[in-house]
Amino acid sequence: MSSLFPSLTHDPGDQVALRFGDRSLSYARLAAAAGAVGERVRGRPRVAVWATPSLETAVGVVGVLLAGVAAVPLNPKSGAAELAHILRDSAPALVLAAPGDELPEPLRDLPRLDVDVDAAGPRPDDGDAGDGDPALVVYTSGTTGPPKGAVIPRRAIAATLDALADAWQWTGADVLVHGLPLFHVHGLVLGVLGPLRRGGSVRHLGRFTAEGVARELGGGATMLFGVPTMYHRLAEALPGDPELAKALAGARLLVSGSAALPVHDHERIAAATGRRVIERYGMTETLMNTSVRADGEPRAGTVGVPLPGVELRLVEEDGSLVAAYDGETVGEIQVRGPNLFTEYLNRPDATAAAFTADGWFRTGDMAVREPDGYVRIVGRKATDLIKSGGFKIGAGEIENALLEHLGVREAAVTGEPDADLGERIVAWIVPVDPQAPPGAEELADHVAARLAPHKRPRTVRYLDALPRNDMGKIMKRALTHG
């Protein structure tokens, strides 16, 4: 296949490719540093990368990919048991790290290569790599057992990034700013490899702050990627920060992903800046499936339409197709296309179970689809689909309704067994004022008035904070009824 990064393999120039804080590399210097990494790793099957939010991580991953080798990004916050499992499963030949990084015990017996961002190796050339060759092995979060290694082929990275370029009108003139971790698809594939494939540049904040966003967007950046927690913090900061409002208003594209952005945060940002955040939908195994298009309607609460090359359908529990795309009927999303992973490493059983006989990937995500094709995610099949009183109800829309209540700071919705209804709806609330939280009946009436009576919570439980993972996703399995 053609190069993943033409701007690095074909006459790289002096344009800035990467900037992390006050450290930056031009395309020419990145090509040299990546070439030096590639020289050391070429011919290995897999190489681990200690994926801190640093210039070294970006150089290391790019060097590995341009050498035609598969990179295994490691989450620096992983515990020892999880790291040991990933290393046993993926068997990397060595680990790349930034000089001075202290690696935990499970990595100490693995040969180490420090990434030198000032090194000069031969110009990289990945022209011999096949489009089905593994590019990344990214480990899933492991909510239902040990993490599984999703093997992502080179064609999936190229297909997803090119489809997003079409949907977002993304070009080499764009400058992306974000503060996402680099051990997963959002921060690494979209946030680093995306700009490099386009010939643009990325400015990584290191640690996400509203001040950093305002500074970079105010200083020439054109796009912002973030997760809902980040956009919530921006929405909270906007009323007292005219510079932030001006910077966001001047951005070409504000994109949220990795979880649903609550509608009330959409509206607060739009009211303060005149700009709408757009959402997209993807997962480790599929990279990106859908997005609101830059030239489309930025409809809050939806993840837009299927990307070019992606087939998407909704199916009932028995595997039959959802009869109508009416914006109400809930089904499981299944997708097919060049953006998909090839297998779970060393797990043929799990791989086979993930696909239908005719090659559709079972996402486990539940959604409704509007007549015009827009998709609205209502939750995960395992944790967010509530069957109550004969209705299939998605937790996400109830959470959005609860967040519109002025007394609610955070909200999560789950189901629990109920002898009469099958399942009853439980709302987990972090109140704005813990001393005077909104009452259960008040919240039930609030939801019933916005959605429908059968979607009102029957039980309300109050918390100081919701359990969240590194990406800001609520960990619903940690919410225990009692």
Describe the structure.
The protein is α/β, with parallel strands linked by helices. Among the domains are: 6-192, Rossmann fold (3-Layer(aba) Sandwich); 385-478, GMP Synthetase, Chain A, domain 3 (2-Layer Sandwich). It is 28% helix and 26% strand. The strands form six sheets. Strands 2-1-10-9-11-12-13-14-15 form a nine-stranded mixed β-sheet, with helices on both faces. The radius of gyration is 22 Å and the shape is globular. The model has no long low-confidence stretch (mean pLDDT 93).
Please name the defining characteristics of this protein:
482 residues, alpha/beta, GMP Synthetase, Chain A, domain 3, four-stranded parallel sheet, 13 helices, 25 strands, Acyl-CoA synthetase, AMP-bd_C_sf, ANL_N_sf, AMP-dep_synth/lig_dom, medium-chain fatty acid-CoA ligase activity
- Give me the oligomer status: single chain
Output mean pLDDT.
Answer: 93
Strand content: 25-35%
Major β-sheet annotation: 9 strands, mixed
Shape: globular
Please count the helical segments: 13
CATH topology of the domain at 6-192: Rossmann fold
Any idea what the CATH superfamily of the domain at 6-192 is called? ANL, N-terminal domain
- Specify the CATH architecture of the domain at 6-192: 3-Layer(aba) Sandwich
Radius of gyration (Å): 22 Å
User: Which segments are poorly predicted (pLDDT under 50) over 5 or more consecutive residues?
Assistant: none
From the N-terminal CA to the C-terminal CA, the straight-line distance is 55 Å
CATH class of the domain at 6-192: Alpha Beta
Helix coverage percent: 25-40%
Number of strands: 25
- With strands numbered from the N-terminus, the spatial order across the biggest sheet is 2-1-10-9-11-12-13-14-15
Tell me the structural class: alpha/beta
InterPro entries: AMP-bd_C, AMP-bd_C_sf, AMP-binding_CS, AMP-dep_synth/lig_dom, ANL_N_sf
Protein name: Acyl-CoA synthetase
Domain AMP-binding enzyme C-terminal: 397-473
Domain AMP-dependent synthetase/ligase: 12-345
